[in-house]
Write a structure and sequence with these properties.
- The complex is a heterotetramer, with two copies of chain A and two copies of chain B.
- Chain A contains 17 helices and 14 strands.
- In chain A, strand 1 and strand 2 form a beta hairpin.
- Chain B contains 13 helices and nine strands.
- The longest helix of chain B has 14 residues.
- Chain B is globular, with a radius of gyration of 17 Å.
- Classes of the chains: A alpha/beta, B alpha/beta.
- Chains in contact: A-B, A-C, C-D.
- Chains A and C meet through helix 2, strand 3, helix 5, helix 7 and helix 14 of A and helix 2, strand 3, helix 5, helix 7 and helix 14 of C.
- Bound molecules: pyridoxal-5'-phosphate (2 copies).
């Protein structure tokens, strides 16, 4: 199991828990309990029940007929966009809210970029009747207004992160500061496979339901339980981790991760962590980071708020270093064009994050009977304004 | 014996001051150190600014941002402090997050620090376990004391582990909070100070976070070896400049 | 089967096909073919496949624990809000697009109020690569902007209906005029159980998948396949018809239909067709209509664009006349409060249409072990602006 | 014999004009009828305005809206036409959607129409099947001819059914379209006129929809018993008022 986290929280050279002492009790409590809890029968029962009755799982594995025809290969979409609240993010928040209840926490905090994780967190807090505070960068609050509205409808308090680039990274800092200030009764629901151990592993396990379902569904549709390619966009990397998880040790499956190149790798406005990053430590984790020579984190840029993050989960750094996954970076304009294309070819308006993944169809060649599974990580409702402005629709 | 250890041996309470290198102006670093020493501060913590200082409150965040904009880097800091020990006698500690240090090169960082005459390091995001495994021998070799933080939530067992791996003092965070976030100390902070003092640790404790005036300082040093002033000092020099630092120090003792 | 449509297209005194001769060939073609097609094995196979793989059916039947506790009864939500595109409307459009293909139509038109049906239609047209024109009242275009954006993303042409009250009724007139002008190659996908026969029956049958699933799901959860109460909001009545369908002849099941009273039944600004309507003929159907003494249709009003219709499907007029269903009308303010309440109690932001249904919890008494099934007909993403303004969030 | 039947017996082509009652002004109805008769129009269709005229184009929709705003109702129309037959000799047909008629009361509507001297009815949303079953005998009793529409899409079988149930003329819709929506007649409209004329129906056909000038009128009457002008007339009186109706009629013959 060379892609599993080790005892100390590392994936190869990446991971760990580089946290200030103030966070130690919280992280330690989690570390000591998370596996016990999420492997317990009670948790599994509650988790699966909520996933099925509340979230709407299993999400379909949809054979995209017109797209397949156009690219002369077999394309499946894993429809995480159909999850309650509109993205894969809720798989994780359902799991963590159950865990938080188990740990007797009375208050939830979270960071959010695109707002999907914020909405997913606010949703499970409403469901459980627990107080909820969401940190969101000022810039993201503006560009993802519908999700801000949703969080408020759900009764969450949305606090604007005014530091740094005022996007996801800064919202994460703010959330961690809140946690430092409220170490006893608060649980911090991180929204991706980032942050200190055990978060990357915990979130990966909760998102792993995606690949678990893909296995069953592919077997049913194709008579074999694995595809030739798995493709997902990577912000922090949670939807990707969830899609890859059960296939990591199956070397027959080629793994492709797509990150956001913003205005272009060399434009100075990008979020292509793998292409531009060096190993470093941020948000409690050792991983690849966009940073300058002095070790200051570079403010990332992507048209999609959910990929606008200068780091990447340590699992993904490891998949890159070991060459288990191929990393590709995609410009804003290619992603936007794919947002429109998927809408008009398949009637599915994807989140701009999600749209990035499809660009590989233009740059890689696939065989006629290759089976590709794309993670359709979220729907584009939150991005309508960006789409409309961009395409002048 | 390290300057910190010597200082701690003295039969007096410690007043330590934190400031961010390169703030308000890039070349204020040395001037501030000189003035702090002149006004009888016992110990100085020089902050290396980082873009994402997750354990710090607004004041220090802002000063770090400004310092980075001013051009402060570890390289610059080391060159500013090149001749530190020509004048400055009191212990000087560098405080900074791990990432800039790693990018500079951890070994080079330690060697340079020793060369200059740095006495200790505070690296908030370096937990004791990783310290022991990867950093301890290097720090020891360069006579750099690593200072660990503890909080009211830190378990006794862990305090003992930290104590065992400390050779200077323990940075006792006054309450569960980021720097500068609380106006006053809470009652149960004092219970916690008592608890620590009753543990009879090998290392003395110095209290940080939330020390902003004579009243808090006086109360705190009854229960500890000393106190660290950070945000309050940064606010002061931001508003009053660095000329009248003496006035600020007199507010404490 | 006294609630089934008869040979001539009537439910008791209501229904029929009061159409201008120009529409006769279209309607006749449909009438002659719809049952044959939708009962054919090929259709069922394609329909069920798309519903399952594309739409995400079966939608969960979710036991709302906190809501049940609060009202001391057993409340289930049929989660049509989890359907692809966010409402039950797509059940119908999937069916009709398959039918249109079967009839060799090359162009689709539709009317829309809330925009949900427009989006659902534009979606299936994109999926099939068929041209699509959507008529929408000018007023609705403004208040349901996100859905307009979605239709455009999906490649549909949105035409504003400028006549009359510039809402759903007028969009329907415009669509019918388009159909008159394009009688050969165009299929008109009506979005509710309204219009001339065979639309009410056809749309009901396509939406009946809702109650079909409820039967199976209730049996699994409660050991019996029927509830005590079925509750749905009624605009034209399609989500309600779908929820009721398989229970119409089971007299043990009490049926409640909730219509929009706007600013109040007697305010002059309402869409409470049953309360205020008289029998009449509009859009090709004999049914209850809001009209003045001269037979002019009254411009309805509701804060929810999807209920803002002065008529009601003929099935529902019949259910009312025969007292099979109890009809309740609910003001804007009660509906809005329920939109917020459901968001904060269950983490589900409902469409304002949907929110109307829940108001009966405040006015009717239920027993502790009564089983209530609410149709959660759609999600509230399209209504965020209205909610935010209303509650000043 | 009904006035329509008599008129159709005459050896001449029919020019029929449609207008909406109560438009442009509420009490224009009778004035328009008088002037149309004065200018030798053969047949008049008086439209009863409806809020949702789904078979009508923009021009008639707008005139209907205006007429309703002006206060036009069936009651008002009947009282305006009370003394119709004191002066007017040519056949007059009422055209309207079913709903207002039903609300008024279908029986009362027929009786009143007969009383006043109305000769026929055009009810676009009353299909022939429902007519036969529910309305035929009532209309017959009141000597009201029901006029049915046919279109290029109407099947031969259905045309025969309609012909069988008609006693005046058949309203031959020129193309598949709502009123006023096409500027010119299409070529295949004429093929369709030929087809109908070859069917040797019992009832003559009069062409409606899209007749807007002498050219279309002349072409159409070569193939039929006459033509109906609607939207073009309404546009004219909207722009020019009702005084110079003669000028409009002269544009046709
Ligand atoms: C739809 C969608 N996809 C992908 C992402 C990126 O996150 P991750 O890489 O953790 O899946 C986000 C983040 O908000 C998202 O909303
Ligand atoms: C979510 C939702 N519910 C209900 C309705 C009302 O339509 P119907 O009564 O046909 O279900 C609409 C119409 O747009 C809708 O969007």
């Amino acid at each position: 199991m060379k892609y599993k986290v080790d005892e100390k929280g590392f994936y190869g050279n990446f991971g760990g828990a580089y946290i200030p002492e103030m966070l130690y009790p919280n992280i330690d409590e989690l570390k000591r309990n998370y596996l016990k809890i999420i492997n317990s029968e009670n948790f599994r029962k509650d988790f699966e029940k909520l996933l099925s009755e509340y979230v709407g799982r299993p999400t379909p594995l949809y054979f995209a007929e017109r797209l397949s025809k156009k690219y002369n290969t077999k394309i499946y979409l894993k429809r995480e966009d159909l999850c309650h609240t509109g993205a894969h993010k809720i798989n994780n928040t359902i799991g963590q809210i159950l865990l938080a209840k188990n740990l007797n926490k009375k208050r939830i905090i979270a960071e959010t970029g695109a707002g999907q994780h914020g909405v997913a967190t606010a949703t499970v807090c409403a469901l459980m009747g627990i107080d909820c505070v969401i940190y969101m960068g000022e810039v993201d609050i503006k560009r993802q207004a519908p999700n801000v509205a949703r969080m408020k409808m759900l009764g969450a308090q949305v606090r604007d992160a005014k530091s740094g680039s005022k996007t996801l990274k800064d919202a994460t800092n703010e959330a961690m500061r809140d946690w430092i200030n409220n170490p006893v009764d608060t649980h911090y629901i991180i929204g991706s496979v980032v942050g200190p151990h055990p978060y990357p592993d915990m979130v990966t396990r909760l998102q792993a339901v995606i690949s678990k379902e893909v296995k069953t569904q592919l077997l049913e549709k194709e008579g074999r339980d694995y595809p030739d390619y798995l493709i997902a966009c990577v912000g922090g990397g949670s939807n990707a981790a969830g899609l890859y998880y059960h296939y990591l040790n199956n070397e027959k499956v080629k793994i492709i991760a797509v990150e956001a190149a913003g205005k272009g790798i060399n434009s100075g406005e990008s979020a292509a962590t793998i292409k531009l990053g060096k190993i470093g430590i941020m948000h409690g984790s050792k991983t690849l980071l966009m940073q300058n020579d002095d070790g200051q984190i570079i403010e990332p840029y992507s048209i999609s708020a959910g990929l606008d993050y200068p780091g990447i989960g340590p699992l993904h750094s490891h998949l890159y270093e070991t060459e288990r996954a191929k990393f590709v970076s995609v410009n804003d304009s290619e992603a936007m064009d794919w947002g429109l294309a998927l809408s008009q070819i398949e009637g599915i308006i994807p989140a701009i994050e999600t749209a990035h993944a499809f660009s590989i169809l233009d740059t890689m060649a696939f065989k006629k009977d290759d089976i590709l599974v794309f993670n359709c990580s979220g729907r584009g409702d939150k991005d309508l304004e960006t789409y409309i402005k961009y395409f002048k629709l | 014996m390290n300057r910190i250890q010597k200082k701690l041996k003295e039969d007096k309470k410690i007043l330590s001051v934190y400031f961010t290198a390169g703030f308000p102006k890039l070349d204020d670093t040395k001037k501030i150190i000189s003035r702090l020493e002149k006004h009888n501060v016992d110990l100085i913590e020089v902050g290396i600014p980082f873009s994402d200082p997750l354990a710090d409150g607004e004041t220090i965040q802002k000063s770090s941002k400004k310092a980075i904009e001013n051009g402060m880097t570890i390289r610059t800091l080391f060159s500013q402090l090149k001749d530190l020990r020509k004048k400055v006698k009191i212990p000087v500690i560098l405080m900074g997050y791990l990432n800039p240090i790693i990018q500079f090169g951890i070994e080079k960082f330690c060697v340079k620090s020793k060369e200059i005459g740095i006495d200790g390091l505070i690296i908030p995001d370096l937990p004791v376990e990783i310290y022991i495994e990867e950093y301890k021998s290097l720090f020891n070799k360069n006579n750099l004391l690593n200072i660990f933080l503890i909080t009211p939530q830190t378990s006794e067992e862990r305090i003992k582990l930290i104590d065992k791996n400390s050779k200077g003092f323990i940075y006792m965070v006054s309450s569960s909070s980021i720097t500068g976030s609380k106006k006053n100390l809470e009652d149960n902070s004092f219970k916690y100070f008592d608890k620590i003092s009753n543990m009879n640790l090998n290392n003395p404790s110095i209290v940080g976070f939330g020390i902003s005036n004579r009243e808090t300082y006086q109360k705190v040093i009854e229960k500890s070896k000393g106190a660290i002033v950070g945000s309050a000092f940064i606010n002061f020099i931001e508003q009053n400049g660095i000329e009248c630092i003496g006035k600020f120090i007199k507010k404490f003792r």
